[in-house]
Amino acid sequence: MPKFDSKSFNPEAFASYSETVSKKRLNQLIKANIFKPNEDIRNALKTQTGSFYAIIPMYGRLSGEPDNYDGKTDIQSSVLPTYERGVVAFGRAKGFTERDFSYDITSGVDFMSQVAQQVSEYWDDVNEDVLISIIKGIFAMTSEGGLEFINKHTFDISGETENKIQETTLNDALQKSSGDKKAVFSLTIMNSAIATNLENKKLLKYLTYTTAEGIEMPLNLAHWNGKLVLVDDHITTETTEAGTKYVTYALGEGAFDYEPLDVKVPYEMERNASKNGGEDTLYSRERIVYAPYGISFTKKNVKSFSPTNAEFEDGANWDLVTDTENEEYFDHKEIPIVKIVSLG
């Protein structure tokens, strides 16, 4: 079929466009309840000098042995520990152009209006890719504390004799990573192959609701060991030399601080009356902070004022938050991010 500017046109079959191609991605990671705002980050990055990178303090907990109050023992004091956490903003921009002749050749289809309708979903894809790159980066840390985090928060059974997820896999993974803090985890994101495997074993418990008539009906939402199950094939596989492996993420509320930052012109239209007979371009810009809780961005290998996805994936750019005065790492058990690797 003839095309002009990637637009199919046929006077009979394409007098008007009435359907949109289905969205390929579900963006479950973006939609998951794992984000919390952080006013300290927003305030730190409002200033001109701190608009790219900032060091945010994280307060530790009071500790130390109490002194005996007996009238003759001196009272000793201790200092509240303070951890330093590096956070970074990233910016992305994109333009979308539509020609006047596309409107003419398709009998009046307004493609720019379709662009406007889809632009937010486009940014969901872009931002989810950034989040996945950040997760890859923190699971590639090289410091002593970072390696301990990776060891404790990775549950890889892909090389075991029993290399598929079983009834106890999630519970074992959360205990390994967080011990008595494992209750902070609230959801999992998994591949449909894993979800089907669990469903076949009757390990998923589907939520229900009761109608006005008193009839109990199932919802398309399931729990696995009390954790909400989200299914997303796009972000839950990784390709290795040994073949494809499945990655299941367990996450908790507040796993990431999230702050959208102001840009001077987030959206604007540009009209070029002469180019290609006339065309319009929609430009879109955004700046965002995604900061994994308890983990610091070090910016050791960053070449500009906005890290690329490849730079986010570089483990040298991440480390556990550190109390530099006492040279102590933040307790990894507090970080609600776990990665389970399996073959099914």
Structure description:
The strands form 6 sheets. Strands 7, 8, 9, 10, 11, 12, 13 and 21 form an 8-stranded mixed beta sheet that branches. Strands 3, 6, 14, 15 and 16 form a 5-stranded mixed beta sheet that branches. The protein contains 8 helices and 21 strands. The chain is globular. It has 344 residues and is α+β, with helices and mostly antiparallel strands. Residues 11-18 have low confidence and may be disordered. Helix 5 runs antiparallel to helix 6 (169-178).
Summarize the SSE layout with pairings.
Elements: E1 3-4, E2 7-8, H1 28-31, E3 35-36, H2 39-44, E4 53-59, E5 82-88, E6 90-99, H3 100-105, H4 111-138, H5 144-153, E7 154-156, H6 169-178, E8 185-190, H7 192-200, E9 205-210, E10 216-224, E11 227-231, E12 237-240, E13 243-252, E14 256-261, E15 267-272, E16 279-292, E17 295-297, H8 309-312, E18 318-320, E19 322-323, E20 328-329, E21 337-342
Identify the notable features of this structure and list them briefly.
single chain; 344 residues; alpha+beta; eight-stranded mixed sheet; 21 strands; 22% helix; globular
Quick recap of the structure?
The protein is α+β, with helices and mostly antiparallel strands and 344 residues long. It is built from eight helices and 21 strands.
Order of helices and strands: EEHEHEEEHHHEHEHEEEEEEEEEHEEEE
* Average pLDDT: 88
Sheet having the most strands: 8 strands, mixed
In percent terms, what proportion of residues is strand?
25-35%
Shape: globular
What's the total number of strands? 21
Q: What percent of residues adopt helix (DSSP H or I)?
A: 10-25%
Structural class: alpha+beta
| Number of H/I helices | 8
Low-confidence stretches: 11-18
* Radius of gyration, taken over Cα atoms and rounded to an integer in Å: 25 Å
Distance between the termini: 42 Å
